[in-house]
What does this fold into?
Amino acid sequence: MLNVFRSRPKYAKVQRTDGEQRREFPDNLWTRCDRCGQMLYNKELEKAMHVCACGHHFRLSAYQRLSMVADEGSFIPFAPVYSVDPLGFPGYGEKLVKAQELTGLDDAVLIGHAQIDGYPVILAIIDFSFIGGSMGSVVGEQLTRGFERALEEQLPVVIFSGGGGGARMHEGIFSLMQMAKTAQAVGRHSRAGLLYISVLTHPTMGGIYASFSSLGDIIMAEPGALIGFAGPRIVEETTKQKLPEGFQTAEFALEHGMVDMIVKRDEMRSTLSRLLRYHVRGEGK
Ligand SMILES: [Zn+2]
It folds into this structure.
């Protein structure tokens, strides 16, 4: 499943630092770490759950995340919903088609029934590659259906957020309305005494952070994830204040009580399983 969208091999020229020689790395075999600059062999990187030895957590597609979190073969997706481009925003229709081809998703969220270590949940994963993981009417509607279904079936909800785009500007007010809509759906689920675990991955910003993703009963984050509403540059310009070191990182959010725990990728599944075991009535595995 991970390699469905592999492109044709292209060869990137890489300048060696020790002289004028150039070596060619096929760019579908190697990836450069954004943090430490190390060239990483893709097969090894995949084995390491897309985490570099330096601790940098690479961004994952929704399907990659699904394969790391859910029990194999347990995922049953909801029926797809498609945006109708309500504003006739120039170029948005083509953008949607391109994003659908790139990710294999109908919109920026992959959602459905799944099991995590034998515990049934509603699982939703936002994919950053789909227009920045932004929330338009489809993402809002699907997440709302997720909470409603979970309420009906008395299930916990687990959502992985990673939407740097926040609310999707191409749908204007329809996107902004999804913030209130999803927040209300979370509230109804919560008042029924059901568990919602929100996992913030890099980057969780804007309207996504300002609605459902900051409302989890338990909020986890991946190391180094950027978490916040407006970006640091805008905050600095608006408040005319110098921001502290590490502002808006997962670690900063933990220190200031906005996040309950930081969980490394290789411990994510076992941590979710443990939390589900503590909170869910009835039998799991
Ligand atoms: Zn690295």
The pocket of zinc ion is lined by residues 33, 35-36, 38, 52, 54, 56 (CB under 6 Å). The chain has two domains: 1-58, 59-279.
